[in-house]
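Continuing the batch. This is chain 6 of the set; chains 1 through 5 are on the previous pages. Same settings as before, nothing changed between runs. Recording input and output for traceability.
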Amino acid sequence: MEKEEPESNALLLLALKFFEVSAFGQDPQPDPEPKHLLDGIRSSLLASYPSQDTPRYWEPIPSVTELLQAGVKFELRSNTWDNMLDITFEKGVMEIPPISIEENAESLFRNLIAYEQCDPSIKSCNIASYAVILDNLINTSKDADFLIQKEIIVTKLSKEDIACLFNRLYSDTIVGYFCYVELTKNVNAYYQDRWHRWQTILRRDYFSNPWSIFSLAAALLILGFTFLQTLYSLLTYY
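Output for chain 6:
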Protein backbone atom coordinates (compact mmCIF):
# COMPACT_ATOMS: atom_id res chain seq x y z
CA MET A 1 0.00 0.00 0.00
CA GLU A 2 1.45 3.37 -1.02
CA LYS A 3 2.03 5.96 1.67
CA GLU A 4 -0.20 8.98 1.18
CA GLU A 5 1.30 12.45 1.09
CA PRO A 6 0.11 14.87 3.81
CA GLU A 7 -2.56 17.21 2.46
CA SER A 8 -0.40 20.32 2.96
CA ASN A 9 2.56 18.71 1.23
CA ALA A 10 0.40 17.54 -1.66
CA LEU A 11 -0.91 21.09 -2.10
CA LEU A 12 2.64 22.44 -2.02
CA LEU A 13 3.82 19.94 -4.61
CA LEU A 14 0.89 20.95 -6.80
CA ALA A 15 1.82 24.63 -6.39
CA LEU A 16 5.47 23.95 -7.16
CA LYS A 17 4.40 22.06 -10.26
CA PHE A 18 2.27 25.03 -11.28
CA PHE A 19 5.20 27.40 -10.68
CA GLU A 20 7.69 25.01 -12.27
CA VAL A 21 8.76 27.56 -14.88
CA SER A 22 8.28 30.81 -12.99
CA ALA A 23 9.92 29.56 -9.78
CA PHE A 24 13.29 30.38 -11.33
CA GLY A 25 13.84 26.92 -12.80
CA GLN A 26 14.82 25.40 -9.46
CA ASP A 27 14.34 21.75 -8.56
CA PRO A 28 11.75 21.82 -5.76
CA GLN A 29 12.73 20.64 -2.28
CA PRO A 30 9.36 20.83 -0.49
CA ASP A 31 9.18 21.64 3.21
CA PRO A 32 7.21 18.85 4.93
CA GLU A 33 5.52 21.34 7.29
CA PRO A 34 5.14 24.74 5.62
CA LYS A 35 3.22 27.50 7.41
CA HIS A 36 1.37 28.29 4.21
CA LEU A 37 1.81 28.19 0.44
CA LEU A 38 4.23 31.14 0.13
CA ASP A 39 6.35 29.83 2.99
CA GLY A 40 6.48 26.45 1.28
CA ILE A 41 7.65 27.95 -2.01
CA ARG A 42 10.32 30.02 -0.23
CA SER A 43 11.56 27.01 1.74
CA SER A 44 11.76 24.91 -1.41
CA LEU A 45 13.96 27.57 -3.04
CA LEU A 46 16.26 27.93 -0.03
CA ALA A 47 16.87 24.19 0.30
CA SER A 48 19.83 23.81 2.67
CA TYR A 49 21.32 27.27 2.05
CA PRO A 50 22.66 28.69 5.37
CA SER A 51 20.86 31.61 6.97
CA GLN A 52 22.33 34.86 8.30
CA ASP A 53 21.04 35.40 11.82
CA THR A 54 23.25 38.35 12.81
CA PRO A 55 22.91 41.79 11.21
CA ARG A 56 26.26 42.86 9.72
CA TYR A 57 27.48 45.85 7.74
CA TRP A 58 27.94 45.30 4.03
CA GLU A 59 28.73 47.38 0.95
CA PRO A 60 27.33 47.08 -2.59
CA ILE A 61 29.52 45.48 -5.22
CA PRO A 62 30.33 46.90 -8.69
CA SER A 63 28.41 45.92 -11.79
CA VAL A 64 29.34 43.12 -14.18
CA THR A 65 30.95 45.59 -16.60
CA GLU A 66 33.05 47.19 -13.86
CA LEU A 67 34.13 43.83 -12.46
CA LEU A 68 35.14 42.60 -15.91
CA GLN A 69 37.41 45.64 -16.22
CA ALA A 70 39.08 44.57 -12.98
CA GLY A 71 39.70 41.08 -14.33
CA VAL A 72 36.85 39.26 -12.57
CA LYS A 73 35.62 36.18 -14.43
CA PHE A 74 32.04 34.94 -14.36
CA GLU A 75 31.30 31.25 -14.58
CA LEU A 76 28.10 29.22 -14.66
CA ARG A 77 27.81 26.85 -11.72
CA SER A 78 26.71 23.62 -13.35
CA ASN A 79 24.41 21.08 -11.74
CA THR A 80 23.07 23.63 -9.24
CA TRP A 81 19.46 24.04 -10.31
CA ASP A 82 18.53 23.03 -6.77
CA ASN A 83 19.93 26.18 -5.14
CA MET A 84 20.02 29.46 -7.02
CA LEU A 85 21.35 31.29 -3.94
CA ASP A 86 24.70 29.50 -3.87
CA ILE A 87 26.83 32.27 -5.41
CA THR A 88 30.56 32.03 -4.70
CA PHE A 89 33.65 34.17 -5.32
CA GLU A 90 37.18 32.84 -5.12
CA LYS A 91 40.47 33.92 -6.71
CA GLY A 92 38.80 36.40 -9.03
CA VAL A 93 36.11 34.01 -10.27
CA MET A 94 32.43 34.48 -9.45
CA GLU A 95 30.34 31.37 -9.95
CA ILE A 96 26.59 31.88 -10.22
CA PRO A 97 23.97 29.12 -10.49
CA PRO A 98 21.56 29.38 -13.44
CA ILE A 99 18.21 31.05 -12.91
CA SER A 100 15.18 30.97 -15.20
CA ILE A 101 13.35 34.29 -15.49
CA GLU A 102 9.90 34.35 -17.10
CA GLU A 103 7.25 37.06 -17.40
CA ASN A 104 5.68 36.37 -14.00
CA ALA A 105 8.98 35.96 -12.13
CA GLU A 106 8.85 39.54 -10.83
CA SER A 107 5.54 39.04 -9.03
CA LEU A 108 6.83 35.85 -7.39
CA PHE A 109 10.06 37.60 -6.37
CA ARG A 110 8.14 40.53 -4.87
CA ASN A 111 5.80 38.29 -2.90
CA LEU A 112 8.70 36.29 -1.46
CA ILE A 113 10.60 39.46 -0.51
CA ALA A 114 7.48 40.95 1.08
CA TYR A 115 6.94 37.74 3.04
CA GLU A 116 10.50 37.91 4.41
CA GLN A 117 9.83 41.49 5.51
CA CYS A 118 6.48 40.78 7.15
CA ASP A 119 7.04 37.51 9.02
CA PRO A 120 8.76 38.30 12.37
CA SER A 121 10.03 34.72 12.66
CA ILE A 122 12.19 35.18 9.55
CA LYS A 123 15.49 36.91 10.26
CA SER A 124 17.59 35.88 7.29
CA CYS A 125 16.45 37.75 4.18
CA ASN A 126 17.72 35.18 1.69
CA ILE A 127 15.57 36.09 -1.29
CA ALA A 128 15.97 39.84 -0.72
CA SER A 129 19.75 39.38 -0.38
CA TYR A 130 19.81 37.54 -3.70
CA ALA A 131 17.83 40.35 -5.32
CA VAL A 132 20.36 42.87 -3.96
CA ILE A 133 23.31 40.97 -5.46
CA LEU A 134 21.64 40.72 -8.87
CA ASP A 135 20.70 44.40 -8.74
CA ASN A 136 24.32 45.31 -7.95
CA LEU A 137 25.62 43.19 -10.81
CA ILE A 138 23.04 44.37 -13.35
CA ASN A 139 23.11 48.14 -13.80
CA THR A 140 22.45 48.25 -17.53
CA SER A 141 21.19 46.06 -20.35
CA LYS A 142 24.85 45.39 -21.23
CA ASP A 143 25.32 43.69 -17.85
CA ALA A 144 22.12 41.68 -18.32
CA ASP A 145 23.16 40.64 -21.83
CA PHE A 146 26.51 39.33 -20.55
CA LEU A 147 24.81 37.10 -17.96
CA ILE A 148 22.34 35.89 -20.60
CA GLN A 149 25.18 35.04 -22.99
CA LYS A 150 26.91 33.10 -20.18
CA GLU A 151 23.60 31.21 -19.66
CA ILE A 152 23.54 32.32 -16.04
CA ILE A 153 20.19 33.96 -16.74
CA VAL A 154 17.91 31.80 -18.87
CA THR A 155 15.08 33.84 -20.30
CA LYS A 156 13.00 34.78 -23.32
CA LEU A 157 12.73 38.36 -22.08
CA SER A 158 14.88 41.11 -23.56
CA LYS A 159 18.08 42.27 -21.88
CA GLU A 160 16.39 45.63 -21.24
CA ASP A 161 13.49 43.93 -19.44
CA ILE A 162 15.88 41.88 -17.29
CA ALA A 163 17.85 44.99 -16.31
CA CYS A 164 14.66 46.88 -15.39
CA LEU A 165 13.33 43.92 -13.41
CA PHE A 166 16.31 43.66 -11.08
CA ASN A 167 16.84 47.43 -10.82
CA ARG A 168 13.38 47.95 -9.34
CA LEU A 169 12.91 44.65 -7.54
CA TYR A 170 13.75 45.47 -3.94
CA SER A 171 13.11 49.23 -3.83
CA ASP A 172 11.92 50.50 -0.42
CA THR A 173 13.13 47.26 1.18
CA ILE A 174 15.48 47.10 4.17
CA VAL A 175 17.75 44.05 4.22
CA GLY A 176 18.98 43.81 7.80
CA TYR A 177 20.18 40.21 7.74
CA PHE A 178 22.17 40.15 4.52
CA CYS A 179 23.37 36.71 3.40
CA TYR A 180 26.34 37.66 1.21
CA VAL A 181 28.49 39.72 3.59
CA GLU A 182 31.70 37.72 3.02
CA LEU A 183 31.13 37.55 -0.72
CA THR A 184 30.69 41.33 -1.07
CA LYS A 185 33.72 41.91 1.15
CA ASN A 186 35.92 39.67 -1.00
CA VAL A 187 34.62 41.05 -4.29
CA ASN A 188 35.23 44.66 -3.24
CA ALA A 189 38.73 43.84 -1.98
CA TYR A 190 39.58 42.24 -5.34
CA TYR A 191 38.07 45.12 -7.30
CA GLN A 192 39.97 47.77 -5.33
CA ASP A 193 43.33 46.09 -5.93
CA ARG A 194 44.90 48.13 -8.76
CA TRP A 195 47.17 45.27 -9.80
CA HIS A 196 44.19 43.27 -11.05
CA ARG A 197 43.07 46.21 -13.19
CA TRP A 198 46.57 46.68 -14.63
CA GLN A 199 46.76 42.98 -15.49
CA THR A 200 43.48 43.24 -17.37
CA ILE A 201 44.68 46.29 -19.33
CA LEU A 202 47.93 44.53 -20.25
CA ARG A 203 46.11 41.41 -21.46
CA ARG A 204 43.53 43.42 -23.39
CA ASP A 205 45.83 46.00 -25.01
CA TYR A 206 49.09 44.11 -25.46
CA PHE A 207 48.48 40.38 -25.26
CA SER A 208 45.09 39.98 -26.94
CA ASN A 209 46.61 38.73 -30.24
CA PRO A 210 50.00 37.64 -31.63
CA TRP A 211 50.58 40.94 -33.48
CA SER A 212 50.18 42.92 -30.26
CA ILE A 213 52.71 40.67 -28.54
CA PHE A 214 55.11 41.03 -31.50
CA SER A 215 54.75 44.83 -31.47
CA LEU A 216 55.41 44.99 -27.73
CA ALA A 217 58.45 42.72 -28.05
CA ALA A 218 59.82 44.83 -30.91
CA ALA A 219 59.32 48.03 -28.92
CA LEU A 220 61.10 46.55 -25.90
CA LEU A 221 63.93 45.34 -28.13
CA ILE A 222 64.39 48.79 -29.68
CA LEU A 223 64.28 50.36 -26.23
CA GLY A 224 66.93 47.92 -25.04
CA PHE A 225 69.24 48.67 -27.99
CA THR A 226 68.77 52.41 -27.44
CA PHE A 227 69.71 52.07 -23.78
CA LEU A 228 72.81 50.01 -24.59
CA GLN A 229 73.88 52.49 -27.27
CA THR A 230 73.49 55.40 -24.86
CA LEU A 231 75.39 53.54 -22.16
CA TYR A 232 78.21 52.70 -24.60
CA SER A 233 78.44 56.34 -25.70
CA LEU A 234 78.70 57.54 -22.11
CA LEU A 235 81.38 54.98 -21.24
CA THR A 236 83.38 55.90 -24.36
CA TYR A 237 83.13 59.62 -23.57
CA TYR A 238 84.44 59.24 -20.05
